[in-house]
Each structure stands twice: as structure tokens, then as C-alpha cells.
Amino acid sequence: MGLLSILKKVKEKEREVRLLILGLDNAGKTTILRKFCGEPIDKIEPTLGFNIKTLEHKSYKLNVWDVGGQRTIRAYWRNYFESTDGLIFVVDSSDRARLELCRKELMDLLGQEKLAGASLLIFANKQDIAGALTVEGIEKVLGLKENKIFEKRHWAIKACSAFTGEGLVDGMDWMTDDIASRIFMLS
Amino acid sequence: MKEFGPEDALQLEKPTKSFLCPLEDGQGIDFEQFVISNEESKVIFKGQLEIDLRPEFEGDDKYRGIKYTLGEEVLLRNTLIQTKLIFSNNRNEPLQNFRMVEKHFLDEVELACYDFTYPFVLPNSTNCWESLYETPKLSEDEIERIVANPLCVSSDTFYFEGNKLVIHQKVRYTYVRNDKKE
């Protein structure tokens, strides 16, 4: 009775989607999430665990899991793969020294069985910083075009700045549309 | 005696008389902050909790009861609210299948039930959970009764690690009408 029945109705009506945001520490995962929700981004500290956030976008209910990216935490990422509809991988485009590490982490994620069906959105973040690598540059370093691993995967790469907010809505639109076309086509 | 598990919590029909697990069982799991916001992301409640000294609680349990004072207009009229809970796992071990079951009651009638599982909580971590809820839709009579009788709305919150109850919180709520003269 009461709220439980309302919530059930909401669930059926509002079509839920689960997103997982990963990437190296300081890539801007939490800032992207906060900025996308229109929240202040001036006091964001390194995530030493997870941030779970439920939000509504394009009439979908998004359950977003943002998990910390520090090396010690990366070892625990696999505990969050289950039931993920979409993976958002965030790259700090200005941190050229760690792009190779980014590539390795991404390849490792794409080899995971539990993430096999997930749509992949790569955010080439921090485009507002002078000297940041362009989307084309990131695409090349990550080997997105050549690698067979991407042939069967629904994926996109988008330039963005979590600081200015540019590109975030575009990316999230792509992600929700892509998941919706796979999952909710018949509804 | 069979231990009190998540299914028992889901089927609970009225508030419990006492706490169903020792305080020590939740050691290392700390609740840092609880915030409620409205649809426009305006904060309407931020962890102003008071100890709820109830005669029926004995010993250390006296200090485990909590009281919240909230605005009637926001919480009881079927609006969407956002809750934000920050908690830490200060243990050196992860928490597996950490599950919250929370039941709200008006006297001894169920108003709402929330059920959420964190499959994995990192050791020595601080975590933030933000969620959207629709508040229960109540009749005008019920709202009048709630405002006139502080503390008749209560909740039992149970946290389970797997099937083992590790934390039990009991909260009573006072709903204040904003136009009420103080």
C-alpha cells in the first residue's frame, strides 16, 4: 500500500537505466555528474568510495554510479559492473602522461563479461584547458577506430568540459538514446 | 530464535518496541550527513537530529532514538523530494550486499517502505547516496492528525550486511505547519 505501490508504478512508467562512471582519478567524474545536475562544482574532493545519484533525463530515470578512480580503488571497480546499461569512461584530455594508462584501463573494462552489453560513452574531458588533446587525438591514442573490440560495441566519444558544462548534455543524450533504442524499443 | 532478516523487515507491520540488534554490531559504519531537498534542489532539511528520550528505551538504548522536525507542507503532499545520505565504512573490510530497509508508519499503519541495496561498499570509504522519492499521498484528515499529534509518524530503519542485521535506527517525526504562530 501507500508509497510502495506508487514507486512500483513510477518504476514501470519511468523506465530506469543504470549508468556507471569510471576513469582515472582526477579525470572529473564527480564534477561531470554534479555539473550535469546543475550543482556547484567548487568543493569536490577526491571520491574515496562511490556517489550514487538518481536523476531524471529525457523521461528516463537514471541511476548513476560514480566510483572513485584512485589506483587502490580501481581494484574494486569490478564489484560495480553488475546490471550496468551504460558505461561512461572519463578521460582527462590534458593529462597526456597518463593516456596510455587510460587506454589500458579502458581495454580491461571492455574485456569484462559483465559489461559486454553496455553502451560506451567516452568523455574527452577538460577541453577548456589549454593544451588538452582534441577528441581526434584521444580517439587515436585509445585506438578506437582500429581496435576490433569496438566493432560490436555501441560507443561514442564526445568532447566536453565539466568546468563549463559544454558537451555534457550532448553526451548524456547520446547515452540515453542509445540505451533506449536497445532496451525500450518494444515498450 | 530465528534472526531478523531483510524479509522480516519488509513484512514488518508496525513499529518495533525495541532495538533488534546491539549497538556494537554497526561499529565502523558511520552516518555523516542526511539532507532532504525539494524539486528545485533547495535544501529543506539538513541533519538537525535530536535525541528522542523515550521511557521505554533502557540503558544505552536511551540515546539511540532520534527525532526529526520537518515542514508539513513539503513532506506529506505527494511531492518529489531528493534525499542525500553520506556514510562511511571505516572498517578494513568491504561491506557486501549492504541493504537498507526503511519502514514509515502513521501510528501503527504503514505509510511507506524503502528498500535499497549497495552491492559493495569499499573498505575505509566515504560514500554518498542521493535518491528521488515521491512522498506518500495522504488525506487531509491524516495530515491534520499528524500535525496535531507530534511524533505519531515514525520509522524503523534496518541495515543488513547480507542477511545479518547490523544497524537499527528508530526515528520519530514532528511535522510543523509553517503558518503556525510560535
UniProtKB/TrEMBL annotation, chain A:
Keywords in alphabetical order: GTP-binding, Lipoprotein, Magnesium, Metal-binding, Myristate, Nucleotide-binding
Binding site for Mg(2+): T30, T47
Signal peptide: none
Residues reported in the UniProt entry to bind GTP: G23, L24, D25, N26, A27, G28, K29, T30, G69, N125, K126, Q127, D128
InterPro entries: Arl2 (IPR045873), ARL2/3 (IPR044612), P-loop_NTPase (IPR027417), Small_GTP-bd (IPR005225), Small_GTPase_ARF/SAR (IPR006689)
PROSITE patterns cross-referenced by the UniProt entry: ARF
MF GO annotations: GTP binding; GTPase activity; metal ion binding
Gene3D superfamilies associated with the record: P-loop containing nucleotide triphosphate hydrolases
NCBIfam families referenced in this protein's UniProt entry, alphabetically: small_GTP
Membership in a protein family: Belongs to the small GTPase superfamily. Arf family.
Protein name per its UniProtKB record: ADP-ribosylation factor-like protein 2
Organism: Chaetoceros tenuissimus
Native organism taxonomy: Eukaryota, Sar, Stramenopiles, Ochrophyta, Bacillariophyta
UniProtKB/TrEMBL annotation, chain B:
GO biological process: cilium assembly; lipoprotein transport
Database matches in Pfam families: GMP_PDE_delta
Gene Ontology molecular function, alphabetical: lipid binding
Residue ranges constituting the GMP phosphodiesterase delta subunit domain according to the UniProt record: 27-175
InterPro entries associated with the record: Ig_E-set (IPR014756), PDE6D_unc-119_myristoyl-bd (IPR051519), PDED_dom (IPR008015), PDED_dom_sf (IPR037036)
UniProt cross-references to Gene3D superfamilies, sorted A to Z: GMP phosphodiesterase, delta subunit (2.70.50.40)
Entry's transmembrane regions: none
Key words of the record: Lipid-binding, Protein transport, Transport
SUPFAM superfamilies, sorted: E set domains (SSF81296)
One cellular-component annotation, GO: cilium
Family the entry assigns: Belongs to the PDE6D/unc-119 family.
Protein name: GMP phosphodiesterase delta subunit domain-containing protein
UniProt source species: Chaetoceros tenuissimus
